[in-house]
Amino acid sequence: MRLLLLSNSTNYGGTFLGHAHDTIHEFLGMDVGEILFVPYAAVRFSFDAMSAKAAEVFGALGYGMKSIHSVPNAPAAVEEAQAIAVAGGNTFQLLARLHQEQLLDPIRERVREGVPYIGWSAGSNVACPTIRTTNDMPITEPPSFDALGLVPFQINPHFTDGRIPNHGGETRSERLLEFVAANPGMPVIGLREGSILQVEDDRVVLLGDAPAVLFKSGQESQDIEPGQVEV
Amino acid sequence: MRLLLLSNSTNYGGTFLGHAHDTIHEFLGMDVGEILFVPYAAVRFSFDAMSAKAAEVFGALGYGMKSIHSVPNAPAAVEEAQAIAVAGGNTFQLLARLHQEQLLDPIRERVREGVPYIGWSAGSNVACPTIRTTNDMPITEPPSFDALGLVPFQINPHFTDGRIPNHGGETRSERLLEFVAANPGMPVIGLREGSILQVEDDRVVLLGDAPAVLFKSGQESQDIEPGQVEV
User: Fold this and answer.
1) What is the rounded average pLDDT of the residues B148-163?
2) What is the DSSP annotation of B160-219?
3) Interface test with B, best of A124, A130, A134, A137 (most B CBs within 10 A)
4) What is the reported pLDDT for B169?
5) pLDDT of residue A164
6) Of A133, A166, A193, which has the smallest distance from its Cβ to B167's Cβ?
7) Residue of A10, A165, A167 lying closest to B168 (CB–CB)
8) Which of the listed CATH numbers 3.90.180.10, 3.40.50.880, 1.10.357.140, 3.40.630.10 matches domain B2-229?
9) Residue A121 bears catalytic tag
């Protein structure tokens, strides 16, 4: 199983997937010709606009792209996919649509068979057992929070120690400590913007310059340095 | 129907409910002797600790307090309540427990009969038709996002224009614009910290110094000044 799970598409002040070009190219290699793209997390812009934006980046790297919203038979497209890329946006919207189109089982199956999976932000959330560690607003109610379960841990994308100045709301760490308190046994990796998790079967490697943060129930959170990760 | 819906319990640098003492006292008046308290949103501290903290504040205002987690028969306690206060914490946790204890219908019924309802943060979220405009992480999966529906609009508590410095994630306004795009016909009031909505039947009044922000699908967001609100 091969996964490339990005915290985010766009670093602060950066360009769309700009920080990940080389990593994506290396990950997909020369064997993949066309990528199946999943734009379902888009809310305020069209699936066409989102897939065009992604096609530009992947095209420049030498890959063709087909968006799942534009094919007549989505499950068949998954069946034939050489690689799958799932974009960010709203995680609830994305998961609701994956349930609605009955795509969770086919995608899970194909990725477990070895089809490379790239996700960013919401696309990384849905690679986890559930979407319970998303930062997104629950604007849409999916039939279940259960997601692809491609990794045995949760990711919190866009992880940050920052807080809004003069604001009383919870910090991200407080929210994740609540998660592990309510879900003992399920660890969370807080993945800072710019960071990427590369998964090759049971091997998990943190790419990027910044440490990630590991949350487990009953333990203090701890930094994880870039390199191989033990969850 | 009488509701006092607070954005938050604690202003930045302030004390627990400190900004709302006078308003709460005026709202409850002299007829209420004891308040039924709902601490179910607590995650990382006990219901006992949360209710003790609230009992101190309400006690100082001259009101007794009984916490619903400590009574033998919760629906019966709702039936006899002179007033109901629902505390903040995690909205998903709160709503899941309200569903589990089958308290949504009894509370809705009593409040519609005139029993005063005070909520802050998550307690204000659950007064709305659904919890789709909470800021909280979905750490627990409730059977449904449907909530008390005491008001015909959504509230976003802890509303802020601020953002985390050098961070790429969505702003609050972006999230709420996504909500109204995905849920046309349902307006949202973004309620800044320190602000309170007082509802007396169909009359809605914004209390506090700051404007709130009204979001409606297909429209620009607009400021609402303190005073009577037309949603």
Assistant:
1) 96
2) -S---TT--SPPHHHHHHHHHHHSTT--EEEEETT-EEEEETTEEEEESSS-EEEE-TTS
3) A137
4) 78
5) 86
6) A193
7) A10
8) 3.40.50.880
9) yes
